Amino acid sequence: MAMGLFRVCLVVVTAIINHPLLFPRENATVPENEEEIIRKMQAHQEKLQLEQLRLEEEVARLAAEKEALERVAEEGKQQNETRTAWDLWSTLCMILFLMIEVWRQDHQDGPSLECLGGDEDELPGLGGAPLRGLTLPDKATLAHFYERCIRGATADAARTREFVEGFVDDLLEALRSLCNRDTDMEVEDFIGVDSMYENWQVDRPLVCHLFVPFTPPEPYRFHPELWCCSRSVPLDRQGYGQIKVVRADGDALGCICGKTKLGEDMLCLLHGKNNMVRPSGEMEDLLCARDSPYLDTMQVMKWFQTALTRAWHRIARKYEFDLAFGQLDSPGSLKIKFRSGKFMPFNLIPVIQCDDSDLYFVSHLPREPSWGSPASSTDWLLSFAVYERHFLRTTLKALPEGACHLSCLQITSFLLSKQSRLTSPSGLSTYHVKTALLHLLLLRRATDWKAGQLNARLHELLCFLEKSLLEKKLHHFFIGNRKVPEAMGLPEAVRRAEPLNLFRPFVLQRSLYRKTVDSFYEMLKNAPALISEYSLHVPADHASLPQKA
Fold it and tell me: Which of 426, 523, 430, 439 has its CA nearest to residue 473?
């Protein structure tokens, strides 16, 4: 019983102790706090995962950049190695090229030039020994030939120049007296050019070539336009230029339509919609081409021929000879006819000075080759005759006394002239021979042109011509030749121009090339016999020079 009572009391006490209202539990909100903690932990875990992903992406990007940098560095290293090897190879090639070029120049400058053969288009059988093994006469024979046949022409040239210059002075003075200074072209003093004024004329009859510069009346002036100043010029127009007639203020016609605004209902009488010049009496008086402000060669030829005729009629009574025009294609080709039946030809060539240089535009020059027919009558040939005379005079001062350079030119020109009379003229002219000599004067030392080396230098000149013919290439001496001394005063545009090949017609005309090569070798074959024959006999074909009445 006591035990049962004890158990009942224990149960009551336990129930009282565990009653929530008597003793509330402090951790009764644990379930709610745990859920919040779990949510926070989940949110934090998600942030950690996102940060981990971002870090992984950053590490991957850095690794990719590092790999790219390593790849670029590797490629740069390879390129540097390749560039170093290429630079070394280029340097070696350049050194080899310079050595070959120096050897070639020395080989060309030697006393015997090796004449190269041509390509498949060349004539067969032209290779072999230089000049086909030609043996020139010895020094004694050449010296005897020069003294008897050529030196006498130099003395006659001085008397011929004196006579022609006196007559031309009088003729041009009469021409000026007939011109109206306000409307006509103004003629200036003549300039002697070519072989008669360079002391190497040998062909008979002796012919003086005189440039006659002219200028337009005020307020006009000539504005030359060189072919080398244009971006693209056809090959057949190289060496030519055009001359624009402009006013002093730069307007080609003096029209003000380009300087003022015209109304929509107003029309310029000189300029159409395409801005072309209409024919006007003013421009025709200035010898321009139709519908163009450019000077016309045909108009100039007609004007000059008419002016010379009027001038001669004015002074004809003062002289005991007649004056007539020689060649129809050359306006200033004149011929003095003496009563004895003899005659004396000379050329007056109307020219236009190119700016302030010694270059002159000519409509036609008989002794200089025209590098292809002009495309139109407004194309003018550019002549370097004054520069050539100046270069020969300047070079002569540095050469030994009695230098043989002009003797080589005279003998070769003599042989070429005789061959042309035998087989008709070919594509090779005395101007080509003169150009070859000018190139050799630059290549050779001054001491190589002593009088005793005439035989060697003559052989070298002929070899140079043969080599140029076989290669179909003979560059103009001044155009594009930067070896020409700057003291010559050549315009910079001409010095920097592309070299002009005087033998370009041979590339286009195979028949002319074949004829020229055949004629050249025929001349070499006949040279020893001609020199021997003319050494013994000198033809007396000198014209007497009567004085004024």
Answer: 439
One-letter amino acid for residue 17 of the chain: I
Residue 148's alpha-carbon distances to 154, 166, 403, 427, 541, in angstroms, are 12, 29, 18, 29, 14
What DSSP element (H or E) covers 344? strand 343-353
Query: Could you give the 3-state DSSP secondary structure of residue 364?
Result: coil
SS3 182: coil
Between the alpha carbon of residue 511 and those of residues 305, 332, 424, 518, the distances in Å are 36, 32, 14, 11
Give which of 112, 121, 209 is closest to 157, Cα–Cα: 209
Give dist(CA 329, CA 344) in Å, integer: 18
Q: How far apart are CA 457 and CA 409, in angstroms?
A: 10
- Hey, is 276 helix, strand or coil? coil
The CA radius of gyration of the chain, in Å to the nearest whole number, is 46
- Write the secondary structure of 8-47 as one string of H (helix), E (strand) and C (coil): HHHHHHHHHHCCCCCCCCCCCCHHHHHHHHHHHHHHHHHH
Q: pLDDT category, 268, cuts 50, 70, 90?
A: very low
The three-class DSSP label of residue 129 is coil
- Stated as kind and residue range, the H or E segment containing 382 is strand 380-383
Structure-token pair, residue 296: 């016309």
Q: Is the pTM of this model over 0.90?
A: no
pLDDT tens-digit map of 23-52: 554 444 444 567 888 888 888 888 888 888
Altogether, the residues listed in the chain come to a count of 549
